[in-house]
């Protein structure tokens, strides 16, 4: 039995779907871009083996019930232009962390907002989460704005939490509760 309920697709510009080996080139185009991973805890991908490694790790984490990632594409187009994920899921506390990335060519059109709104509907609906969290570099303004537009609140600033390639970075820690999301979407 799947550890996650099926994702429910809504209407709009965006479709979310499972990733497969057929998406390796598109994923490499996204995560091989230094601008996309600029605020992440890792380096840009250098080849298809990085994509295969992520897909294998995703499958193991999915089977264990700890994480799930879907590809984001434009409706009626199969090519993946981004991903959304939930990870560090705690079933007993009904919480998880959220992750997301979009190819640079797709930035600035509100597409991730649409994708994340669907993702939150599913996470707080069929999946039954009580709380979602996000760990963001305070300098990643587009990501912070994306979260705030969905109703996430900054709950703390964790100093010098990451050291990536010798550079030290803080974490802006965000949270959103199911009842806050439901109050926003039922207005
Ligand atoms: C974060 C990300 C997914 C946002 O996706 P997007 O579809 O381009 O987002 P939007 O077009 O809705 O823009 C989000 C907001 O940030 C603002 N913004 C974007 N770039 C900005 C910048 N450089 N400075 C200030 N504000 C910026 C936009 O004006 C918008 O604000 P608004 O909601 O008040 O209008 C995308 O930038 C991305 O993939 N970044 C790289 C990966 C990443 O950092 N992921 C998150 C890790 S925590």
From TrEMBL:
Gene3D superfamilies in the cross-refs: 3.40.630.30
Domain (N-acetyltransferase): residue spans on this chain: 14-180
A single Gene Ontology CC term: cytoplasm
Annotated protein name in UniProt: N-acetyltransferase domain-containing protein
Lineage, highest ranks first: Bacteria, Pseudomonadati, Pseudomonadota, Gammaproteobacteria, Lysobacterales
Record-level Gene Ontology MF annotations: protein N-terminal-serine acetyltransferase activity; protein-N-terminal-alanine acetyltransferase activity
């Amino acid at each position: 039995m799947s550890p996650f309920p099926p994702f429910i697709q809504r209407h709009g510009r965006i479709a979310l779907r499972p990733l497969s080996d057929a998406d390796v080139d598109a994923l490499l185009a996204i995560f091989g871009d230094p601008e996309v991973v600029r605020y992440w805890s890792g380096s840009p991908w250098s080849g298809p083996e990085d994509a295969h490694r992520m897909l294998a790790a995703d499958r193991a984490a999915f089977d264990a019930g700890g994480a799930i990632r879907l590809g984001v594409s434009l409706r009626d187009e199969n090519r993946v232009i981004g991903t959304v994920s939930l990870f560090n899921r705690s079933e007993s506390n009904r919480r998880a962390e959220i992750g997301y990335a979009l190819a640079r060519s797709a930035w600035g059109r509100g597409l991730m907002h649409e994708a994340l709104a669907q993702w939150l509907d599913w996470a707080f609906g069929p999946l039954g989460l009580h709380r979602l969290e996000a760990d963001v570099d305070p300098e990643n303004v587009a990501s912070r704005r994306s979260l705030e537009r969905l109703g996430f609140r900054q709950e703390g600033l964790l100093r010098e939490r990451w050291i990536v390639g010798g550079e030290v970075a803080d974490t802006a820690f965000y949270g959103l509760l199911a009842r806050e999301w439901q109050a926003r979407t039922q207005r």
